[in-house]
Amino acid sequence: MQSGDSDAVWLMQGWLFSYDPFWRPPQMKALLNSVPLGKLVVLDLFAEVKPIWSTSKQFYGVPYIWCMLHNFAGNIEMYGILDSIAFGPVEARTSENTTMVGVGMSMEGIEQNPVVYDLMSEMAFQHEKVDVKAWINQYSVRRYGRSVPAIQDAWNVLYHTVYNCTDGATDKNRDVIVAFPDVDPSIISVTEGKYQNYGKPVSKEAVLKSETSSYDHPHLWYSTSEVIRALELFIASGNELSASNTYRYDLIDLTRQALAKYANELFLNIIEAYQLNDAHGVFQLSRRFLELVEDMDSLLACHDGFLLGPWLESAKQLAQNEEQEKQYEWNARTQITMWFDNTEEEASLLRDYGNKYWSGLLRDYYGPRAAIYFKYMIESLESGDGFRLKDWRREWIKLTNDWQNGRNVYPVESNGDALITSQWLYNKYLQGTSVFDH
């Protein structure tokens, strides 16, 4: 680097020290101290979850930047650790012998969880730890333009649930709808008790478990019944706040979050019916799952922030000719589905890495994909033969490649009433205590 620029400074991602077992303290210290002081700055890249500065003696004297990573691939999932953000940078800056020189954000994708980025953006200017409870009360007033006690109560619930993830897990959205399991349904075990009537999970691990690592498990770290209570408060405040664009965004996002976790549980019920050789049960429950996906697509269509169309159109607008436009649209479609290293029978290992809850994507890709899987489940039960995993994969991959090559145009403007749609879906899927007894 110095041969190209004598003033070059090496900016190093620090999280390799926590994920690569080679980097024990002696090796880490030797590397960091081998670079002249002032020529290396380390990014403590995932400091809100796994800070390294505190276990490495301030990176052994090397300057570093406290970074919030938060999001992978722009996945849409209500998630965060507000307390860690509110005190982490201040704690690092005021610690003994600190070498911290700044704060930063290093997310892979943005345009989700506005509350997290709002708070983190403030931390560059905060000299004291932030009282999150007081901050969150003012946040809703600033965000919606007026004080509504029920909404403040709702945000207090969200602060203590979805925005209080303290299990140390990396949050990659692996909800069944957007990251469908690629395994034989007979080897998926349904954890006894499951979500215990939509309350707290029985453990920090998700309920989907199998004998293979062919898929990641959905992440659940909070009481879903409490989040539904927050949704009820949001809906109840609709008459006062529905004119607010930011309120409508948050209402849709919260409804989506609750329905996504419901879908995870509904999928487990389908698996349970399959393992009991209940073809009728699989048919009825899978039909409800597919109906839910369609309904969620309608919900997401109610706000510009949850549309597939703008993503595709922004890619096409970069093109200078028709050939480029086709290529750029294919790139955009591929990035959010299955990266193109698959064969006809083997899916890419990076399938669904960039998954999104976007209207258009649920209706035309996630829903049809699930329908193919359910079709093979029912055929397996009716024939008495095993699940035809290779045939499922072949048909799923063909669906994916066909969709990636598609040129159909998707809306770039919202359509529908967010409050009415959210209320309707709450009544249809979430109301009542026996939400998972369908």
Considering the chains and any ligands shown, give keywords for the structure:
438 residues; mainly alpha; four-stranded parallel beta sheet; two-stranded antiparallel sheet; 6 strands
What would you say about this model in short?
The chain is mainly alpha-helical.
Describe the structure.
The protein is mostly helical. It has 16 helices and 6 strands. It has helices spanning 16-19, 25-33, 57-60, 82-94, 114-122, 132-144, 149-160, 224-236, 238-241, 245-275, 279-300, 309-316, 322-335, 361-383, 389-404, 418-430; strands at 10-13, 40-44, 64-68, 100-105, 188-190, 208-210. The strands form 2 sheets. Strands 1-2-3-4 form a 4-stranded parallel β-sheet. Strands 5-6 form a two-stranded antiparallel sheet. The model is unreliable at 195-213 (pLDDT under 50). This is Alpha-N-acetylglucosaminidase. It comes from Citrus sinensis.
Low-confidence segments: 195-213
- Note the beta-strand portion: 5-15%
Q: Average pLDDT value?
A: 91
Total strand count, please?
6
Based on CA atoms alone, the radius of gyration comes out at 23 Å
Distance between the termini: 62 Å
- Identify the overall geometry: globular
- Total of DSSP H or I helical runs spanning 4+ residues: 16
Helix content: 40-55%
The order of strands across the largest sheet is: 1-2-3-4
The secondary structure category is mainly alpha
Largest sheet: 4 strands, parallel
- Written as H for each helix and E for each strand, in order along the chain, the element string is EHHEHEHEHHHEEHHHHHHHHH
